[in-house]
User: Fold this.
Amino acid sequence: MRNFSDSWALRTLPWCLMTALTAGSLGVHAQVTAPVAKSSAVMATGLTLKDLVRQVREANKDIRSKRAEKEIAQTGIDRASAAFQPVATLSATNGVNRQPNTYEEKLVRSNQALYLRDGQDYSAGVSQLLPTGAKLEAKTTLSRFITNINQLDGRPEGAKDNRTFMGLTLTQPLAKDGGFTVTNARTDVAELDVAVAQHTQFETESSVVAEASLAYYELVLAQHRVAAANEKIRTSQRLLTEARSLNRQGRLAEADVWEIENALSRFRAGLSEAVQGERERLNRLNTLVMAATGTGLPTWRASDALPAVVKPSSSAAAEASVRLALDSRHDFLMQKKLLEREGVQLVYAQNQALPRIDLIASYGRNGLAYSAQTAFSADTMRNYPTWSMGLQMQIPLGENRQGRADVASASLRRENALLAIKALEVQIANDIDTSLNMLASASERWEFWQDVARREQQQLDVEYKRFAAGRSEMREIMMREEKTVNSRLMVIEQQVAFAKAQIILESAQGVLLERWPS
Assistant:
């Protein structure tokens, strides 16, 4: 240890140094809330976490992609409900039929050698699927024709027969495809697909917002690291100036000057690394908002103050957090919708495994006259009713292998969806436990590092007094200054860790987006 007590100037020098350096060592709490130094000469634009979240929700590729997928899923409802849309069927044909008569046909066709028909046929119908699975069809037909046979009955020149029909046909499935549940299955599945897509969108949005929030606090920490590196450089530069002055006067060894020069080089290297880390975190935020660095965009600078560190609540909060997550997390709600969807698919598959048994009923009336209007009149058609009723069956011979396979497949998919829910419940419980312990650990570490930083500051003050009394060296002052700055930075790191733990906890609970309602 070098003793400079014989020189009045050297005895007063430490007090001058201490006065100059104390301004950079005012205490832990002041460092946490003080604005950090800029890492470059480029003017930066202040960025709050709220503004970042807004930009992310508007511009992020993943969020926009999930919104598009939800809109695509919504079109499925229209496709499914289109099955209940009435369908009109229209047809019109014009033709001539010329064919020879058999011997028997000659007997009933006035002994004509051939049969000639010239006419037009029209039909119009409307059919619709009903919620019971029945298909109802209303149909009317008109045939305007003349033959070489009916020309012999003394009709007016060129007059044609007009044969008409109006009727209803109802086909009601009694087994396969029958019932409200099965008929509405496609619409129910489409609506569940929309719900799944919406939960997927919100889950993606929550994940991206959580990622952006964590990146924001990492940028805050990177800025503090740059500020700490700058503070170390300023301190070492002041010490180096004094050390060189003393060395020129022969009062300080060259090795002590080298020691401070080495420290200054280390600090400058640390500043370069800190600036690079800040750049990387800034580019990470730019990526999240689909912005390329260097395209005329202003440089962002996190401007929000770090949240205060508080002691987390009791362990009883874990159960409440799990219940909150089960009610709020969109990935869990999405899995519940998927389970419901697979249940609908299972019921549909079980129905499709049944034999087809359809009740078919029809009723109509016919008309015939030289005039189409007369042929369609009620007076003409009332005397010519036609109706039928019966069953139509289609049953596979032997075992229905396809139906059995479809039911087994649907049942396994439902079991798989149920297993996914159980697994997600376990994951949620573990996520909550990890988040709460992360929050408690960050709070505990913050308190410990507060004590460390306070003691480091006290030791620095003591070291200055010892230096003033000639019982210490400048290199010891340099080391104590560095440890003091590092301890204050560690306090900030724990405060950032606490802020990030809050984000992770709110994300695990599924309530992160409630911070910034859209």
